[in-house]
Amino acid sequence: MQFAVHALDATDSTQSEAQRLAAAGAPEGTVVTARHQRAGRGRRGHDWWDAPGQSLLVSVLLRPAGPATSAPQLSLLGGLAVAEALATVAAVPARIRWPNDLLVDGRKICGILAEASSDGAGRIHHVILGIGINLAQAAFPAELADRATSVRLVTGHAPEADLVLAAVLEQVARRYDAWQAGGFAVLRVAWLERSTLPGQAVRLPDGSDGVGIDVGDDGILRACGRDGRVVHIVSGGTVEEGVTHAARH
């Protein structure tokens, strides 16, 4: 995959800018980065906090051929790729918390947001893979201090953002090529090796607590409720008793 990087000083959101480029016909491999986001967002409508110049904020435009139901697998792919990149470029031993937060010693160092658009036939039109990595922060706001960390806090120094970006894009391309050839099944073992499964606490669709058991070849999480029932959860939605619903973004 060839990447074309649009490097911005500040923007509302790299996701929003990438969406605008996608709507204008930008090709797969278009990348948007920014030193600061005024309105960064995470999963489930949460805000993404960053201090200017202290994070790697990047969104990658992908245009895979396939059903919209496969789009959630790309968020899992993103988590694996970033975990591998951080290990390579900074010796950071990040673990993937379902579905795609990266943790070091229980604190979040990276968040990933995959937003998909589909056509009327239920096929993927494009996916924007958003990645936010805490690089140079020496401290966080009080509301985040006990659950966030950065490469600087973990290793004692912050690598250059360009080096981390290059490593991330290299791993995204490698894993994306593999996914296109064989689906999530070819990534599953590597993903599980870097994940906090099995045994991760998860919230079930009915709001009760459960425990993650495994992730299947289709990228769907199997979790166990307190009553022993097994629930299948998609990273962008939920399924029960084997009935799959397309994730909506």
What does this 3D model show about the protein?
The protein is an alpha+beta fold and 249 residues long. It folds into 2 domains: 4-193, 2-Layer Sandwich (BirA Bifunctional Protein, domain 2), CATH 3.30.930; 201-239. The protein has 5 helices and 12 strands. The chain has helices spanning 14-23, 73-90, 151-155, 161-182, 188-193, and strands at residues 4-11, 30-37, 55-62, 95-97, 101-104, 107-118, 124-134, 201-203, 209-215, 221-225, 230-234, 237-239. Strands 1-2-3-7-6-5-4 form a 7-stranded mixed beta sheet, with helices on both faces. The protein is globular. Mean pLDDT is 90; it is low at 237-249.
SSE layout and pairing:
Blueprint: E1 4-11, H1 14-23, E2 30-37, E3 55-62, H2 73-90, E4 95-97, E5 101-104, E6 107-118, E7 124-134, H3 151-155, H4 161-182, H5 188-193, E8 201-203, E9 209-215, E10 221-225, E11 230-234, E12 237-239
Parallel strand pairs: 1-2
Antiparallel strand pairs: 2-3, 3-7, 4-5, 5-6, 6-7, 8-9, 9-10, 10-11, 11-12
And the CATH topology of the largest domain? BirA Bifunctional Protein, domain 2
- The gross shape turns out to be globular
Global Rg: 17 Å
Distance between the termini: 25 Å
Helix fraction, binned, reads: 10-25%
The CATH architecture of the largest domain would be 2-Layer Sandwich
Q: What's the count of strands?
A: 12
Give the overall average pLDDT.
Answer: 90
- Going across the biggest sheet, name each strand in turn: 1-2-3-7-6-5-4
Compressed to H and E, one letter per element, the order equals: EHEEHEEEEHHHEEEEE
Structural class: alpha+beta
Q: Quick one: CATH superfamily of the largest domain?
A: Bira Bifunctional Protein, Domain 2
Low-confidence stretches: 237-249
Work out the strand percent: 25-35%
Number of structural domains = 2
**Number of separate helices:** 5
CATH first level of the largest domain: Alpha Beta
Largest sheet: 7 strands, mixed
